[in-house]
Specification:
CATH architecture of the largest domain: Roll
CATH topology of the largest domain: Chitinase A, domain 3
Number of domains: 2
Structural class: alpha+beta
Strand content: 25-35%
Helix content: 10-25%
Order of helices and strands: HEEEEHEEHEHEEEEEHEE
Number of strands: 14
CATH class of the largest domain: Alpha Beta
Largest sheet: 7 strands, antiparallel
Shape: elongated
Amino acid sequence: MKSRIFQIALLSAATIGFTACGGDSGAFKKVKGVEYKIVKDEKGKNAAIGDVVEFNLVAKVDTLVLNDTWKQGRPGVMRLDSARTGDWQAVLPFLSVGDSAVVVVSCDTILKSIPADQLSRVPEWLKSGNKITINLSLVSVKSEEQYNKDMEAKQAEEMKKMEEQKAAQMPLDDKALQDYFAQKGIKAEKTASGLYYTIQKPGNGAQITKGQTASMMYTGKTLDGMPFDSNVDTSIGHHGTDPLVFQVGAGQMIPGVDEGVALLRKGAKATLYLPSPIAYGPQSPSPKIPANAIMIFEVEITDVKSESSK
C-alpha cells in the first residue's frame, strides 16, 4: 500500500509542479535525495510509473566518464518504477519526450545504501565527497504494452531483412562451393538448407537424432583453407584437446554444424561445407572469420549419448 501511495504522490508532483515548466535555468531542486535542474522542457505528457522510457545520458565524476549512451550508439531503456533515495531515476517522472536535465547524485548517499561488508569492493571514484553529474535527455516514453508491440514489430522487420540477406547470399555461396568442388575434385552431397557434406568414415550405430548429446573433435577453416579453430590442433585458436560436447538440435551450434552432425553416427568422420547463411552470416565472431564467410568443418564424432543414458 505504501508503494502505491508513493507512486500516486510522485506522479501528482510531476503533474502539478512541472507540466507547465518552461526551460528552468535556475536553482537545482531535489527529489528523493537527488538534485536536478530541467534545462529543456518540451510540451508533452510526463513519464509515469510503469512506462518504458528510452534516454540518452553522459554520467561523470569530475572528468571520469562512467557511461555515455551517445557514444554507445543506442539509448538506455528501462521500466520506470519507484526510485530509491539517491537514485537518479527519481527525476524521470518530471520529464517528457525531448526534455533534458542535469542530475547530481552524491556519492555519500550511495555509500549509505551499501552494506558495510561490501564497501571495500566499491570503485575508487565512489568515495565520500564525490558527486556524479548526469546530463540526461529523454528520447521516448511508452506504455509497457506499446513498447513490447513496437519491439515485436522491430524484431519482425529485422528478421525479414536477415532472411532477404540470406536469400541473396545463398546463390553466391553455392556457386563458390560448386567451383571449389570442381577445382578440388570433391563429390559432396547437398541438403535442402544448402549444406554440403562428405563422409570419409561412416561410423556405426543409429544416426544421431535431435536431443542426443554428441562429443566432437573438429577443425574449422574458411574456404581458402585458413584455419580458425580446432580442438585437434592446439596451435589453431583453441586451448586443450577435449571433445566439444553439445546437445544436437538445441541451437548450441551454428545451424550448419547442428544439421551436419545429425547426418552422422558415432565414430563417423566427415567434412561439412557451410554457406554463410547457415554459418555466421554477416556477423563475424572473430577477426579470422570474414563477414559472409563460407566455412568448412572437418569433424569426428567420438561419442553419442541419449538423455536416458547419461
